[in-house]
Predict the structure.
Amino acid sequence: MSDTLRPTDSQSPQPGQPLLARIKRRSFFMYAGATAGATALVLAGCSKDTSTPSSATGNVSFGTGDASVLNYAYALEQLEAAFYAKVAALTVSPLLAAEVPYFAKVATHEAIHRDFLRTAINRDFGGTIIPDLTPKFDSIDFTKRVKAPADTKLGILDAAKAFEDLGVAAYNGAAKLLKSPVYLGIAGQIVSVEARHAAYVRDLILPGSFATNEAGDVLGFDRQLAPAAVLTIAQNYVEQTLNGSTIGQ
Amino acid sequence: MNFFNIIDLLAEADPDVLDRFSSRRAVFNSLGTVAQRTALATSPLFLGALFQKAYAGTASLPTDILNYALTLELLEADFYRQFLAAGQIPAGADFNAITVIKNHEDVHVAYLRTAIIAAGGTPVSGTATTGIRFNPSLLPATYADQLKYAQVLEDTGVRAYKGRAAELIGTDLLTPVLQIHSIEARHAAHIRTMRGQQPWVSLGDDLATDARFQAAYTSGVASSTKTAIALGGTTYGIPAYNPAQPSPAESNQQQGAAGTKLAVLITTGIGSTTYLADDAAAAFDEPLQAAEVLDSSRAGGLLA
């Protein structure tokens, strides 16, 4: 499937434009009155696009096609799961007593996302799975609930917020790279749970900040980020070098 | 023009196409005599009609999908308008949170209206007294009960956007619609927290066993299903409800069905770790079809 069929990047929603950029290949189906049919076509037309990603030591490539987008999600879920697992394993936690069971729940949700994606990738795209990532959390101070202004390291809540907001933006930004409605559906089922996590953690840091804007945000719209921007941030928390240049191609 | 060549080409692209036509022999035999077949099969009109029939019920224009979303956003916005006007919300954090959410819903309404008009469609409309609005007679007297409606509207909104995102694959609408979708999930999480519930859908949710609200967490339809929705000054289409395939309920614990591949059981089927049913259900939100959302048991029953 050629790149020209893909919508262009737009950081902010632009109400005047979206519907005008129709896609030629779909037009046949639009006349036949079939959105689902067109979706299936795109899926079928692209299902052979996947290639095996490299997994050379120290370097992680994500491959191409829907498998690459799933592997990208799998990488992020690995990171989140590892972070919350470390929080859950603390013998002395700086979290408030009421927060501990909630963090345990979130840790389980992320572990489920990780294990589910691994299962789905191995089932549907055998041989393409990325290796286990080695997390690097030296920029997080697990003895602090939140960082003090003078601290250089993130506290647990700061890091949790960063991971959750990043995860939401990543799923929102990568959805358009997926060809298959099945995987888009799964991504949608996961991203709203990540958004629930994000809202919960934000409220712990600053009550009422569950969906408030930060720099660059558009009122009423959650963030969306392309894989390159997400992986630049995620790279800070992974030992291996992440190469996402072919994600969605 | 060779009819079978067209079907075969289409089958390469859409593996389900022959199912849609039941079988090519059956379709062809239904056409009448050889002479009639030859004449018909070379007619573009015939092909158009055939595809229209084969794909009936799967079609929605982007403006239809946006009008469906606008219907729900108008319902939410008007609910919050009434919620704020009722004067029961405690000043401070609670009032501020509801105001933040109301402002977001207003932004969503404005965005969807603009997008529909830009696409040449007619947006559905609603005011405090006409068109699409929350049925004022349903607004409870107490703050605690008012918040229950807020939770149900937000959780339903999340399910509704999820249910139609796939129809926007390949359009520039997909990303902004998903950006709205996850904001609605943040709203839902906050309102759940305000209510002392878990921020995510849980098997232990109080409203999941409340007769007035539990339909938001199940699936299926109670009333007759329509494919043309006449609301708020216009009419838009929604996909036909498929009674053989209701959406999963929020309590669903298996995911990932793809074509002939079966869903995997999250509790025991995704590796060596065994997960609890509650966590398996909470880790994934579930979609709803448009007909289910607009059913009288859910958002459809909240319209004035």
